[in-house]
Amino acid sequence: LASVSTQADRKAVQSVILAIYRPWLESGANLFQNILSVKGLQGYSQTTLPKPQTGTCIIFCDAFRLDAAKTLAYELERQGFTCPISTKLAALPSTTATSKPALILINDRVSGKGMTGLDPAQKDAKSKLTADAFRKILASLGYQILKDDEYGDPTGIGWTELGAIDAYGHQHGWKVAHHLRSELDNIKNRILSLLDHGWKSILVVTDHGWLMLPGGLPQAELPEHLTMVRKGRCARLK
């Protein structure tokens, strides 16, 4: 989609995508569901990141899916950097609020019990774990919270957030294919500037990937009265 610009070319590409990509997606989704129906959620392990060594800054990028990560790694490796990539299953449910604390070992600070929504709670406060509360927990664990173009002290450990892939995709749909290029450039430039400032290593992490199909993904109706809360990709049942 990013390689075409006229409406006629875009329709032609979208037709091909629907013919090839949708059956492949459905096959993979059905296979994954069949495995879960036999094995349940055992084996759906959610391993947290070890606490980084000093000199490491973590960049959290929302919805930074694997193909984008590989493109970024390729471009950085061309400049002489070493960029290993590792993967794991997303947290359940695969929302940002649930996935962020699943990345960092803070099990003693958060809980999923007693919540009627999809977000975890703060154990002590027994209230929803907001983005601000999550950053305060990180700060209490020794992370420097770097905003925007802040660089922090590279002799410690850092946490910063970057990117609008998820927000842009929700708002503009297939046009995210064109937007992704500028997102990759922004992330690469942020990494290079942090390294120039003295950070020894940069760890880019994400919460989940995403699927985008021209015309929308197949939809199954879930009656609202059967749920406590319902989102486009997940729900909590009564």
Can you give a write-up of this model?
By secondary structure, the chain is α/β, with parallel strands linked by helices. The chain is built from 6 helices and 8 strands, in the order H-E-H-H-E-E-H-E-E-H-H-E-E-E. The chain has helices spanning 7-39, 66-77, 96-103, 131-140, 165-172, 176-197, and strands at residues 56-60, 110-111, 121-122, 143-146, 157-161, 201-205, 227-230, 235-237. A hairpin with a 4-residue loop joins strand 7 (227-230) and strand 8. Helix 2 crosses helix 6 and helix 5 (165-172) packs antiparallel against helix 6. The model has no long low-confidence stretch (mean pLDDT 89).
